[in-house]
Amino acid sequence: MVAPLAGPEIERLVQLLSKLPGLGPRSARRAALALLKRKETLLEPLAAALQEAARTIKTCSTCGNLDSTDPCAVCADPRRDSSLICVVEDVADLWALERAGVFRGRYHVLGGTLSALDGRGPDQLNLGSLVERVRKGEIKEVVLGLNATVEGQTTAHYVTDLIAPLGLTVTRLAHGVPVGGELDYLDEGTLAAAFAARRAM
User: Fold this and answer.
1) CATH superfamily, region 8-56
2) 59 in helix, strand or coil?
3) What CA–CA distance (Å, rounded) separates 181 from 179?
4) Would the pLDDT of 32 be above 80?
5) Is the CB of residue 152 less than 8 Å from the CB of residue 113?
6) Helix spans in the chain (H)
7) How confident is the model at residue 199 (pLDDT cuts 50, 70, 90)?
8) I want to staple 144 with a disulfide (CB 3.0 to 4.6 A). Which of 36, 75, 135, 172 is the partner?
9) Could you say which DSSP state residue 172 is in?
10) Distances (CA, A) of 36 to 10, 12, 26, 47, 89
11) What span, in angstroms and rounded, lies between the C-alpha atoms of 178 and 181?
């Protein structure tokens, strides 16, 4: 039997860190060691920040974003176009679009995609409040900002069928050749999508 390398407190820290995306057991050990070596400058401020986040961060009741206020800063911003809503799978997608600064409307976070394999149906997604928001009549266009995966495409079709009869425009983000991308490195699906979405010059 192999003796543990550290006490239960360190092992628990490693175990919790390894549950974060992108951190396996070895990366979690390195991260834990870095935190412990810099206790005053890194570990204690991080612990305080995590405690504060757990206490104050909540889910926006309007769009599903995470913020310390409800409604969130995006929903509360009067400069945003309230007739335009972008439907995304996750908060990470909302943050990515905000970083890019390309969208000035409002958002709706579904909290996942339809997936028969994972047992995730329409009832597990934030669809009811989307229909409610659309029915109020202020929204004129819904942009589907869902990932170009099988689940993302299935969800996009489902959302379209759900809200298109309510008489508004439903669009989706274009898929294809990324900026700076070389054709030789792209997969067949991306090339097919690029050809299907080609435009006049």
Assistant:
1) RecR Domain 1 (1.10.8.420)
2) strand
3) 5
4) yes
5) yes
6) 8-17, 25-37, 44-56, 73-76, 91-100, 128-135, 150-163, 188-196
7) low
8) 172
9) E
10) 9, 13, 15, 12, 35
11) 5
Is the pLDDT assigned to residue 177 strictly greater than 70? no
Instruction: Kindly report, residue by residue over 65-95, the tens digit of the pLDDT.
Output: 999 999 999 999 999 999 999 999 999 999 9
Fold held by 74-172: Dna Topoisomerase Vi A Subunit; Chain: A, domain 2 (3.40.1360)
C-alpha 56/C-alpha 134 separation (Å) is 29
* Cα(188)–Cα(56) distance, integer angstroms: 45
What's this model's pTM, rounded to 2 decimal places? Answer: 0.84
Structure tokens at 128: 């009811």
